[in-house]
Structures are given as C-alpha cells and as structure tokens.
C-alpha cells in the first residue's frame, strides 16, 4: 500500500441504487454469467475430447474460451453480490486484485485474438506452409508468450495503481475497480498517470484492433483466388472472428483510448465488454462453426449412449 494512504476500503456505487433495478440487474447478469461459464466450458470440453478439433484454430479457441470465462469472473461475481448488498464495500487489496485480474485476462484475450488472426492468415494465404508454420511447438510458444505479455501488461497497470495515494473520499462510481474511476479518487495530480494508462491500455487496444482488421482485410481479399466451397467456409470462420473483434475492441477503445474524461454511459459500455462479449463469444463460435456443432452433437450422443448402456 502506498505511503499517505488513508483509505483501506472502497465503496462501489454499482450500476444502480434503486432496489428494484438491482434485482433486475442480478437476474439479467446472473443469466449472462452462468451462460458465459457454461458456454465456454462446453467449448473447452468439446475441444479437449474431440480429436477432430485438434487444429491450431481450435487450440487457440480453447484458450480464448478460458480467457473469456476468467475475464467475466473478474467482474461479474462482484456485481451479482453487490446487487443484494446495502453497502457495496470492497477492501483495498480486493480492489487492487480486481484491477490486476481484469487487465491480465483482458490482455490475454487480445493476445489470443491476434494469434487466431495469424492462424487464419497462414491457413488461407499460405496453405502449403501451414503445417510447418503453425506447428504444435509454435502454438505452445505463442500461448506462453501471450501469458507472459499479459502478465507484464497487468503488472505495469497495478504498479501505477499501487503508487496512487488515496486520502478520501472512497466512493467509486463504477461496478468494479478499474484505473479510470480510481484515478478520479487519487489525491495527487494524475495527468502523467493518465498519459501512461493511455499509452499502455489505449495503444494496445487501438493498435491491436487496427492490426486485426488489416489482417482480416488481407485474408478476405485473398479469398478471390479460392474455389466457392473454400471461400464459403473461410468467410464463415472469418466473419465470426471479425464479429468478436468488433464487439470486444469497440468498447475497449471507447474506454481506454481517449483523454481523461468520463461519460454517463461508461459503466454500461464496460459491462458490455467485460460481461456481454464473453457471453456472446461461445454463441458466435458455435452457431457459425459447423465443426464445433457436429463435435458437440457427437460428444452428447456418446455421453447419452454410455448412460443408456449402464
């Protein structure tokens, strides 16, 4: 804890103070959170149990589902508990832990989305060299680097946060602990810290989004040389990936890649990318991917057959 810090706990104002709306918040987001965990867990189990889903694309999808589940878990349980709490108190250490986890798994999701784009680029634009370029060793090394990079990013964020002195008040106008609302409470000039946050999170979000959109533009442009069947399959896969990228990066860029200012819709935008997008990802990938749907059906059929034999 930094020196001259008189704050040992924070009070989260949440999404609403109205008791009836709090119950509605609990009902809606409990469905979202359970759906997120169950949906992503189903994808992870399906990929692990089905040999037909052994390609690098599904290896990265497994890790994306894991990142989605953890990313949502970093905020949703706190939101649900606070929906029935008269005083939404979180300790200083809990708040700092949430900042770290939020940025760690958010950064991990960005890294995996980039790896998935690279995988699709190699598969579609360099098909003959795909097995050698996207070997198992390369995929494993890529994921390890993604975890290490995410840890470095979140460590940099938490170091900035831990150095902030809080003298009071301790009311956070948000449903979770994040850098922007915490910076508003710091009893110091936060101009430099805001600039560092923008250069860190803002640049990562913006540059990653630009890189991903350029990658998929190149991929889609190269499809003109493919046959109709190959083009249809590639378009289906890429359109799912592009949808996920836009849904995730749009709100992230809105929150982090802008000057120090706040808007009334900030909390709802944050809810969308921390809870909404992880909920939508499994739906997007399963509905738009015939291989995943077929693998899930086979897995379910095998389970039912095994139960009947008992």
TrEMBL record:
Provide this UniProt record's keywords sorted from A to Z: Cell membrane, G-protein coupled receptor, Membrane, Olfaction, Receptor, Sensory transduction, Transducer, Transmembrane, Transmembrane helix
UniProt keyword Membrane, yes or no: yes
Query: Where in the cell?
Result: Cell membrane
Q: Mark the transmembrane ranges.
A: 24-45, 57-80, 100-118, 138-160, 201-223, 235-257, 269-287
Write down the superkingdom of origin.
Answer: Eukaryota
Pfam families per the UniProt record, alphabetical: 7tm_4 (PF13853)
> Which molecular function terms from Gene Ontology are attached?
G protein-coupled receptor activity; olfactory receptor activity
Name this protein carries in UniProt? Olfactory receptor
């Amino acid at each position: 804890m930094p020196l001259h810090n008189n704050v040992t706990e924070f009070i989260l104002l949440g999404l609403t103070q109205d008791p009836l709306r709090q119950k509605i918040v609990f009902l809606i987001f409990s469905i979202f959170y359970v759906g997120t965990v169950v949906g992503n867990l189903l994808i992870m189990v399906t990929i692990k149990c089905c040999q037909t889903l052994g390609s690098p694309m599904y290896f990265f999808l497994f890790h994306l589902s894991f990142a989605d589940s953890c990313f949502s878990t970093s905020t949703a349980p706190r939101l649900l508990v606070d929906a029935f709490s008269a005083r939404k108190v979180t300790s200083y250490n809990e708040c700092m832990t949430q900042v770290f986890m939020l940025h760690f798994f958010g950064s991990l999701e960005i890294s995996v989305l980039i790896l998935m784009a690279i995988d699709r680029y190699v598969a579609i634009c360099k098909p003959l060299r795909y097995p050698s370029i996207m070997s198992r060793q390369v995929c494993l090394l890529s994921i390890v680097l993604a975890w290490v990079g995410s840890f470095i990013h979140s460590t940099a964020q938490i170091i900035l946060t831990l150095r902030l002195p809080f003298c009071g008040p301790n009311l956070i106008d948000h449903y979770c602990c994040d850098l922007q609302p915490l910076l508003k409470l710091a009893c110091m000039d936060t101009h430099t810290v805001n600039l560092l946050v923008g250069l860190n999170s803002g640049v990562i979000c913006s540059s990653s989004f630009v890189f991903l959109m350029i990658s998929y533009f190149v991929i889609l442009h190269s499809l003109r040389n493919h046959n109709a069947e190959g083009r249809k399959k590639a378009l289906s896969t890429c359109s799912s990936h592009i949808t996920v990228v836009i849904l995730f990066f749009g709100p992230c860029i809105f929150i982090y890649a802008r000057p120090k200012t706040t808007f009334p819709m900030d909390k709802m935008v944050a809810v969308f990318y921390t809870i909404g997008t992880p909920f939508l990802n499994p739906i997007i990938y399963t509905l738009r991917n015939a291989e995943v749907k077929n693998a899930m059906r086979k897995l379910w059929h095998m389970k039912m057959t095994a139960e009947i034999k008992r």
